[in-house]
Amino acid sequence: MMRRREFVTFLSGAVAAWPFAAGAQPRERVRRIGVFMPGVADDAEFQVRNAAFLQGLGGLGWTVGRNLRIEYRWGAGDADRYRAIAAELVATEPDVILALGTSTVSALRRATHRVPIIFTSVTDPVGGGLVASLAHPGGNATGFLSTEFGFGGKWLELLKDIAPQVTRVAVIRDAAVASQTGVFGGIQSVAPSLGAELRPIDSRDPGEIEREVTAFAREPNGGLIAVSGSNVLMHREMLVALAARHRLPAVYPYRSHVMSGGLACYGPDNVDQFRQAAAYVDRVIKGEKPADLPVQAPTKFELVINLKAAKGLGLEIPPHVLARADEVIE
Known about the structure:
The chain is an alpha/beta fold. It folds into two domains: about 30-145 and about 270-300, Rossmann fold, CATH 3.40.50; about 150-270 and about 300-330, Rossmann fold (3-Layer(aba) Sandwich), CATH 3.40.50.2300. The chain is about 40% helix and about 20% strand. The protein has helices spanning about 5-20, 45-60, 80-90, 100-110, 150-160, 180-190, 205-215, 230-235, 235-245, 255-260, 270-285, 305-310, 320-325; strands at about 30-35, 70-75, 95-100, 115-120, 140-145, 170-175, 195-200, 220-225, 250, 265-270, 300-305, 325-330. The strands form two sheets. It has a seven-stranded mixed sheet with strand order 7-6-8-9-10-11-12, sandwiched between helices. Helix 3 (about 80-90) crosses helix 4. The chain is elongated, with a radius of gyration of 25 Å. It starts with a helix and ends with a strand.
């Protein structure tokens, strides 16, 4: 038979446990995600991509403030600071990091081989030493490709389709990024057969871009191609304005260039990649390793044509180009 003192002790323990017995749940564990973007926080293009990432996470049950916390770091296009920013982000001890672009991922890989990294818009992760192979990454990084080197030739083909008179092409690219040099090589490989002479222009210094494009435009029959990269994305308003001022037909890698008034763009749907990246982040948080998740090639591409920009340049877009377009801006 239970004595009175023993009963009081038992009863006190039972009362202490009542909240849980009545249905209260323990607080859900909060996971931490780091996000490293090469741009600035108030840039509309980066906001759209981040919104797609958050939407993807929400569909998988992750909500900021409930079971998720996100630490953002912004590179503001200053590649010289990427290593310091990467080290700072790694020091916050995230469960996984999402990174955009080759330069940010390279900086993160120097900072850690332990924290999982999911990347988007990387052109050559094998050549850049970020993964061992596309099928079996083998390290702490995996993610989604941007374009292969040969894709650059498609930009030149599109430019010549739209503006056959173009024989000289300024190519805006970052010479310090090996993958962009590789894409430039892809453009070079088709230039002779298309009757185009190329002029590379470095994309890091906006002032230098303006000076070199202005000098380039003094000769006739010029056109412009911008290679995908964070500098080209961040300087899009200036690039579009330069092309319009000097009446240069131009092909860009991102839809946001065309929405800013540019002539045409062709490339992967980068916003969609951020939705897909959310699924990889979810899988890593739940225990899978980046080493076992294959790097994925783009599955959605978009060709967008701006007819108002074409009219301003005195161009008539050929019907076969319009027929291929995913979107035509009137």
